[in-house]
Design a protein that fits this description.
Length: 1498
């Protein structure tokens, strides 16, 4: 029963594989394929198939367990599943014959029968025989699978007869077939099934196969199966067919032809290969290894199938090919990247077309290697080629391997780069040409669409060349430029019309009538109409300007960071830093205060918040400040307390200072009222002398985001209140802070309190400069316009360069202090420098003793702003007008500057103000003495000014019931003699150089041939004009004598050129008839102050006009004005006297005809339908006294008349002494002519203070035929052209003198010195170059050719003139010619960059002509040719190519004057009319007929 339940075992068959075997003689060099056939059937996987099996064995291997001394091998068993689903096991036996490797004879075995009989045996027996796998197994059986033949014996069920149908190896097929035939005879005796396996059919010989088939067909039931063990074709089929023959139940075997079976097998392999390759292609990193990838894929069915069919070796080869493809693909991508990067590298290293256009590829490579940026673009590898090095893996290194450039691809890229540069150059040229075409089209207006313009340029060559996108881009750029320019000009126009805007109070809002008036006036301006197509932008600019005018702050200034207030604060912070440190050190040395009591006043909890913030920054109420620890006792008091003083001052708490904090208009008003109450109570109770002078500090708290918009208003009003209270104001620091109070604010406030404490208790040693830091005798406001073309350093240099300058008190970031001796005492002057827009509030609200009004003579808007500001200033306050320009020569050469300087001098004359000029290219006028006379005038009028201010304050107190100042400002000036008199106070001023750096008319020993001025410190000389040598008044009060007015004259050097135009001077009027109207013949230039009152008319009431209430507040005053002639001559027309009543104060616009007519002209243009009487009502008050002209600048007077040149470009004289001076003029001219007749040898000064064997040597000694240019000149020019060709003001802005000298000294020591290594500026090198030519014994352009150059320049025909000049140049000495050509060529290159360096040929000629021609300025006859010679140099620069390189004549404006002088010169005009000196200097003076005042204002 149990046996029945057992599952039946599958049938088992033993098949013996037989065929030709034996020695090499019998079978040839190779077998018939029995072993390969067995191997492929038993172990079909490709990795388990071994194509090589040997039958030659050693005795040991033959006796091993695998062979086991038998001549047959047991290959193992295979389990097969038949078509009917029944499994069977097939044991495979290979009958062979093993050969001894020693004797090459068959091994001796237990069975000594021959192979034919032995192979036909049906029963085999071998105990413990192991399964055979491969030849390597023999002797190493333990390393392979060990499987024994079942039971050590097998019964053979069928035979597989192998016949090799390939060519064979030294074997005849017939012998094989004969052997097979004999073998078949033996096999047939066993009655077992037999199948013939035709082996090696992949190398089949057709007739061999046919013979085999013929052999089989002759036998009964003998089948032939065509097999190939190598390709695994029909191997399994032959074994399966034999099993079917042995098992009759399995059906008749089906034999497949070789070709069909091969195709099926190959298709299976191809399909598996495709799947495997797709699987491998998922690997994208060429660094991947087979081991890593195979471990990842070993369980994938496609991978397993391919391994079984083709084996691991092929799979690995396939993978390796894929990896190599990935690597090559990566290399190709890197190569493409490098090739694509090459154009950028070429653009970096070879961007200059002129340099590479004609270079070969190899020359270009060498040039690139020399570039400093070569290593940034390329890398030179040690091993090449680059794609076989590890550089391919450095993906982050984007540098190009240099060996890549040896390829044809790289050379082609280079050629394309050169062609691109050529085409791009052409494209840029065409774009610029098209841009110039657009610039020539005058009707293109800002905002005009491209479509309206395009039709006018359709035929333009440049337009046709460039693309549509380029043309639109050029037009857009052109539009941006003209729109920006139009907007700038519109803004400038608004400033020029400042009188339109500055007639209302601050924080006012313009009415509709005012806006209509503004539009009516501006609409007549071309600059207004220019923005017609951009009306919204124009309106926006106008509204923005109006908003700024009525609400001005430095944050909203239209000049941005160029706001004068910002630049002044920055400059003073830098310049006065050392002074502050010095003061702080002194304070530290003397400090012995350990405890500080602070009273904090605020509203709505602000005082408590500040106290908490201070405590937060303290440690146990101890605060660290400037390296010292202070104990702080804080007492915050809120607004709710009615008794401030009782809280403020107790026996236990005596405050050292009071912090007043605010963050709103209400809290600021509370502070003002509280301080008034505190000061009132203190003055009434008089508890302590210190209580009355308790220091207050205003602190502005930071705003939240919602209230930050009110910060500018709070800042402005807080500063105004602080100025009124004369206490420091601490602003919110710049930046973003989360808290209301900043640490810097607290420290600044504490420092102020400590300084005040030490002042009040005399803790610090009583040094006057420290003790009286906060006190000032005079408060002067200097005003300048934002955006003016001069530096703040220039206008502040008269103060900052003085030894008497010091920092103002804390909190006054825009002020400085001066200690100057004025009259008999040393005075302390506070100078506050503000922009005009910031000065508006100061003018209305604060005590100012005088104004210094600065304007640029290059800018009409600057003059317009000055007029607008000055018009509203009370005429009791002295004014100093300062014109700023580059040099004195500008007055003669630039008409616009001449007009503005003349207008400024004219206004100064009308209002009896001072007038002077500052020059950026001169050092002579940057001394405090420029303003000494002005300070004296201010001090003289101080009491009157303060009385007027106090009257205004009293009136305001009447209206507002708010008394801030309890006592008038100190009237007495502080006097001390701590400082010894310095040279600044006693030294005579230097001479005045009228022509600056360009055309100088000063003595030769003060002239720098480089175009610069030497600072000359001179002392008074014995001459015939002692009254012209001004000195600062000594500390001793002089006797009241009548001084002679200082009147400026023309330099006698110029008298020859204008003497034809000087007739008999007309006499000025000394008095006017006391009539209400002026005669029509009155001169326009006669200021208002020359109109007198009736004698006997006096005013004993000092009246202040009240604009807000339309009434007059009258104040009795004991001061009157002395209008005697003696006082006038002393320069004090407002000197106090007891004989006459004081005049009523007014505004300067009613005193100046120029200011008044300007304002009235605006009103007329806006109200053209109104009459003059309706438009303006004026007072026709006649004033008694004689008008004085504008005060002289003490530095504008030369030491000697014959050396000084023109004293002032705006030539002035005192009207009272005109007759006397003009009578003396003719006699002085004759005397000067006699002096000038004595000729002198002109020897140029030298700047050097050392001996040199190079500089100052003759030019011929410095050159050779091989090197015709001096080495120093070459080095300087190369340095300038390499590093600074675009430097603004090149050759105009002088470099550091020390650096210039150092350059020449270093070159003297070593001619091979490199300027690049010397850390010097371009301007210093340029100055050294000019100094080289200035030091030559003879000028580069010989004196002998100067007359010829002058005569040639007078030729009217341009072409003829240029050819004549060219012939003159050829007369130069060859050495001079070469150097001159070199220098002019360099200057031509400089002028080509004039858009950036602003140095046109004209500007360069002004700077260089004195250097190249070495003029003798003492020669009077030479002066008439100065402009001509300068223009000749300009022509050389402009026409450089024509003169030296046979180029064409360029079309330029003809700047050389050729017109003959006028035949009928006219008479000299009044001093206020500018002297006309067109080049060349000819007597062309104009005296227009001036109309009488039509407005009835006098």
């Amino acid at each position: 029963m149990m046996a029945k339940n057992k599952e039946p075992r599958p049938p088992s068959y033993a098949i013996s594989v037989i065929g030709l075997s034996g020695t090499e003689k019998d079978k040839g060099n190779c077998g018939v394929g029995k072993s390969c056939l067995c191997n492929r059937f038993v172990r079909s996987k490709a990795d388990e198939y071994y194509p090589e099996h040997t039958s030659v064995l050693s005795t040991i291997d033959f006796g091993g367990r695998v062979v086991n001394n038998d001549h047959f091998l047991y290959w193992g068993d295979v389990t097969q599943c038949g078509e009917d689903g029944i499994d069977c096991k097939i044991h495979v036996i290979e009958q062979t014959e093993f050969i001894d490797d020693q004797t090459f004879l068959p091994h001796r075995s237990t069975n000594l029968q021959p192979y034919i009989k032995r192979a036909a045996a049906t029963k085999l027996q071998s105990a413990e025989k192991l399964m055979y796998i491969c030849t390597d197994q023999l002797g190493l059986e333990q390393d392979f699978e060990q499987k024994q033949m079942p039971e050590g014996k097998l019964n053979i069920d069928g035979f597989l007869l192998c016949i090799d149908v390939s060519q064979g190896c030294n074997r005849k097929f017939d012998d094989q077939l004969k052997f097979v035939n004999n073998l078949y005879v033996q096999l047939s005796k066993s009655k077992k099934p037999i199948i013939i396996a035709a082996t090696k059919c992949d190398e089949c010989v057709e007739h061999y196969l046919r013979e085999v088939q013929a052999f089989a067909s002759n036998k009964k039931n003998l089948l032939v199966v065509e097999t190939s063990a190598r390709f695994n074709v029909n191997v399994e089929t032959c074994f399966t067919a034999l099993v079917q023959m042995m098992d009759k139940t399995r059906g008749k075997p089906k034999i497949i032809p070789y070709l069909d079976a091969y195709k099926t097998q190959r298709q299976l392999v191809v399909t598996s290969t495709d799947k495997f390759e797709k699987l491998v292609q998922t690997v994208r990193d060429y660094h991947a290894t087979w081991k890593t990838v195979s471990n990842k894929l070993k369980n994938h069915p496609d991978y397993e199938e391919y391994i079984n069919l083709e084996g691991t070796k092929k799979a690995k080869n396939t993978f390796s090919k894929h990896i190599e493809q990935l690597k090559q693909e990566h290399i190709r991508k890197r190569r493409d990247e490098y090739i694509n990067t090459l154009p950028r590298a070429f653009n970096t290293l070879l961007s200059n077309l002129e340099e590479i256009e004609h270079l070969s590829w190899s020359e270009a490579l060498k040039l690139m290697e020399k570039r400093p940026d070569f290593q940034l673009c390329f890398v030179v590898l040690e091993k090449t080629p680059w794609d076989e090095t590890d550089h391919i893996d450095k993906v982050n290194d984007r540098r190009i391997p240099f060996d890549l450039l040896s390829t044809l691809e790289a050379e082609k890229v280079y050629q394309n780069h050169v062609q691109h540069l050529i085409s791009e150059k052409r494209r840029v040229e065409m774009k610029e040409k098209f841009k110039k075409t657009l610039e020539k089209i005058q009707f293109i207006s800002p905002g005009q669409p491209w479509e309206e313009v395009m039709c006018f340029v359709m035929e333009d060559e440049a337009f046709k060349y460039i693309t549509e996108a380029d043309s639109r881009e050029v037009y857009s750029r052109h539009q941006r430029e003209i729109v920006e320019k139009a907007k700038e000009e519109f803004q400038e126009m608004l400033f020029e019309h400042s009188e339109l805007f500055y007639d209302l109070d601050l924080n006012a809002t313009p009415s509709s009538d005012k806006m209509s008036e503004i539009h009516a006036v501006l609409s007549e301006e071309p600059r207004y109409k220019a923005l017609q197509k951009l009306a919204p932008d124009r309106e926006s600019l106008l509204l923005k300007h109006i908003g700024f005018v009525y609400h001005p702050t430095k944050e909203t200034c239209l000049s941005g960071q160029n706001c004068m207030d910002i630049k002044v604060e920055q400059l003073l912070a830098r310049s006065l830093l050392q002074l502050d440190h010095g003061r702080l050190n002194l304070y530290h040395d003397s400090a012995n205060i350990d405890k500080v009591n602070i009273f904090i006043l605020g509203k709505d909890g602000l005082a408590q918040e500040l106290a908490n913030e201070i405590r937060t920054q303290s440690t146990d109420d101890e605060y660290a400040l400037d390296g010292k620890i202070y104990e702080l006792d804080l007492r915050p008091v809120d607004a709710k307390s009615p008794y401030l003083l009782s809280h403020l001052w107790t026996s236990a708490f005596k405050p050292h200072g009071c912090f007043c904090v605010f963050n709103s208009i209400e809290s600021l008003a509370f502070i003002g009222e509280s301080i008034t109450k505190i000061r009132t109570e203190a003055s009434q109770i008089r508890r302590d002398k210190y209580m009355a002078s308790l220091p207050f500090t205003l602190i502005l708290a930071n705003q939240r985001d919602s209230a930050s918009k009110h910060l500018p208003i709070l800042r402005h009003q807080g500063q105004q209140l602080a100025n009124k209270l004369q206490c420091p104001f601490i602003d919110v620091p710049a930046g973003t802070y989360p808290r209301k109070f900043n640490e810097a604010q607290i420290k600044q406030a504490l420092r102020g309190v400590l300084e005040a404490v030490k002042h009040n208790f005399d803790v610090v040693s009583p040094v006057p400069t420290i003790k009286d830091l906060s006190e000032a005798d005079l408060r002067i406001v200097m005003c300048a316009m934002c955006g003016d073309p001069f530096s703040v350093d220039l206008i502040l240099s008269p103060f900052l360069d003085s030894h008497s300058c010091s920092a103002a008190q804390a909190g006054q970031n825009n002020s400085l202090m001066l200690d100057k001796i004025i009259g008999e005492k040393r005075r302390r002057i506070q100078i506050t420098i503000l922009s005009y827009h910031s000065s508006i509030g100061v003018r209305k609200d604060e005590l100012v003793h005088g104004y210094i009004l600065v304007y640029s003579a290059k800018r009409k808007a600057s003059m317009g702003m000055l007029r607008a500001f000055l018009s509203e200033v009370q005429d009791t306050i002295p004014v100093q007008l300062v014109a700023v320009t580059d040099s004195q020569a500008d007055f003669f050469e630039i008409e616009a500057i001449k007009e503005l300087m003349t207008e400024g001098e004219h206004i100064a004359t009308e209002i009896t103000a001072k007038f002077t000029a500052l020059y950026s290219l001169s050092q002579y006028h940057r001394q405090t003495e420029v303003f000494t006379l002005f300070f004296s005038d201010v001090l003289e009028k101080k009491n009157m000014i303060e009385n007027s201010y106090m009257s205004d304050s009293t009136r305001e107190a009447t209206h507002t019931s708010e008394d801030v100042f309890l006592h008038s400002p100190r009237g007495g000036a502080l006097t001390y003699n701590y400082y010894p008199d310095s040279e600044d106070d006693t030294e005579a001023p230097p001479p005045y150089s009228p022509m600056g750096d360009d055309v100088q008319l000063i003595p030769k020993d003060r002239f720098d041939l480089e175009g610069n001025e030497y600072p000359v410190h001179s002392t008074p000389l014995n001459c015939h004009d002692h009254e012209r040598n001004h000195k600062v008044p000594p500390p001793i009060k002089p006797k009241p004598v009548a001084l002679k007015p200082n009147v400026k004259k023309l330099d006698p050097n110029l008298l020859k050129t204008i003497e034809a135009g000087i007739g008999k001077p007309r006499k000025t009027r000394t008095t006017l008839a006391p009539s209400d109207d002026l005669d029509q013949s009155d001169n326009y230039a006669e200021p208002i102050d020359t109109i007198f009152k009736h004698r006997g008319v006096t005013d004993d009431i000092y009246a202040i006009p009240d604009d807000s209430q339309n009434r007059m507040i009258k104040i009795r005053n004991s001061f009157t004005i002395n209008n005697t002639q003696g006082d006038e001559e002393n320069g004090f027309p407002d000197r106090m006297s007891k004989t006459h009543g004081e005049r009523r104060p007014s505004k300067y616009k009613y005193k100046s005809k120029t200011l008044f007519i300007k304002a009235k002209s605006y009103y007329r243009r806006a109200h053209s339908d109104a009459s003059d009487d309706e438009a303006f009502t004026t007072s026709k008050t006649k004033r008694k006294g004689r008008h004085r002209g504008s005060e002289e600048d003490p530095l504008l007077s030369p030491v000697e008349t014959w050396k000084g040149g023109i004293d002032n470009p705006a030539i002035t004289s005192d009207q009272e002494l005109d007759d006397k001076k003009m009578k003396k003029k003719t006699q002085k001219v004759k005397e000067d002519k006699k002096q000038k007749k004595k000729t002198k040898t002109f020897n140029p000064p030298t700047r050097r203070n050392w001996e040199s064997n190079y500089f100052g040597m003759p030019l011929q000694d410095l050159v050779t035929p091989e090197k015709p240019i001096p080495l120093f000149v070459e080095k300087c020019v190369d340095f300038i052209e390499d590093t600074g060709l675009c430097t603004e003001g090149l050759y105009r802005v002088s470099g550091n003198k020390t650096d210039q000298d150092n350059i020449q000294k270093q070159f003297d020591q070593d001619h091979n010195i490199s300027l690049e290594s010397m850390d010097v500026t371009v301007n210093a090198v340029a100055g050294a170059l000019k100094a080289f030519f200035a030091d030559l014994p003879d000028p580069l352009i010989p004196y002998s050719l100067h007359p010829e150059l002058v005569e040639a320049s007078k030729i009217l025909d341009k072409t003829e003139r240029l050819y004549e000049l060219k012939e003159i140049v050829k007369k130069f000495h060859p050495v001079n010619y070469d150097v001159f050509r070199y220098v002019i060529t360099h200057l031509n290159r400089v002028s080509q960059q004039s858009r950036t360096n602003l140095m046109t040929a004209d500007n360069l000629s002004i700077c260089f002509w004195p250097t190249l021609m070495r003029p003798d300025f003492e020669n009077r006859e030479f002066l008439s040719t100065t402009k001509i010679l300068q223009s000749v140099i300009e022509t050389f620069i402009q026409q450089c190519q024509f003169f030296f390189y046979n180029g064409e004549i360029l079309e330029t404006s003809d700047s050389v004057a050729h017109q003959p002088p006028p035949s009928n010169p006219v008479q000299m005009v009044d001093p206020i009319i500018p002297l006309q000196l067109p080049p060349p200097l000819q007597p062309q003076l104009i005296q227009p007929q001036l109309q009488a005042d039509p407005l009835g204002i006098i």
